[in-house]
Amino acid sequence: MSKKIDEYKKQLDLFLRDLESDIIRLSDKIHENPELGHQEYYASKLLADYLSQQGFAVERNIAGLETAFLARYASGRSPRIALLAEYDALPEIGHGCGHNLIGAAAVGAATAVKILLDVTNIKGQVVVMGTPAEETSGGKVTMVEKGYFQDIDAAMMFHPGDSTTVETKSLAMDALEFTFIGKSAHAAVAPYISANALDAVVNFYNGVNAMRQYLEEDMRVHGVIIDGGNTPNVIPDRAVTRWYIRAANKQKLKSLTSRIIECASGAAMMAGAKVKVRNYELSYDEMVTNKRLAGAFRRNLREVGSDVAPNPSKASGSIDMGNVSQVVPAIHPYLSFEMAGGCMAHTEEFAKASGSVFGSRLLMRAAKVMAYTTIDLMVDKELMSGIRSEFKSRRD
Q1: What is the pTM of this model?
Q2: 209-213 — which CB contacts under 8 Å span 24+ positions?
């Protein structure tokens, strides 16, 4: 079996070499035309059109998301392997998170696998899911809730980073908006008849700061005041603050979020105001990496000559791939640009790297490793069975 898989991978190398100019062109075009979450009309159409031209059955505007799509190619019923594409950009910075590379790599890997399925007797389905708005409201969350992962056996993607690590951790997250409602009055003439909504926000902000020293190391709380009134001479009757609340898992997050909401209620009471709470973005679950799937990806990374960090990444941020990992075996590896000095995500330097020759090299390396891993899952029944068993045992 191993010898046959090796032959398949050699064929994938040839296909990816032929596809290289197409894949890099897709990435470059997305990089040159950055679009914010749920506005990625150009990128979504570009990738979906290309997959359609390559023979994939493409569904657009799925899950009620105008810039989401699903492209499927089948040579058999299973296994069904999903490669996830992201393509949204950041305000002002553009592709400072390298999502142009993520989208193009998923399409390139899937196309190479499709060509291999056409010329062999390998049975399976390769699926590309276009997942918008990772930077904001998390298109994957909606796609999970709408059932688009119900028939998927394993899901993977890659993300550019400043180091290469396969086993990724992330924090569960709630995004909450607190609107404090008070009573306005002339600040100089009759402040005693008012209820200062801005005071309530300040009380709340200070209360959360006081709470920080009692939080566990895997908890994060950070917020901004987005509305604090219009003029100093009028006591504000409305003030708004937005927060990200993060914890290691959903259970801890639920407890922490309850404490934060109680703090907001107390702050409102102190100022004689009221508070309304709402989710202004979708909540993210923690990432649970499937270790057997990660092991296959790691072996393929080493096969293409990449050094891999020995330990899982430390959880700090939050990703909507976490929600996917709750319903199917999944991985979210980070791959380095392998450039001198490196660079951090969400910076102009990262955006430049994502459109550079280093970005193109990373793109092709990621496409190759994802294609290799997809074929491993389709051919190696023992591997796929182990991945399913690990996922089932974790859920049980």
Answers
A1: 0.92
A2: 211/259, 211/260, 211/263
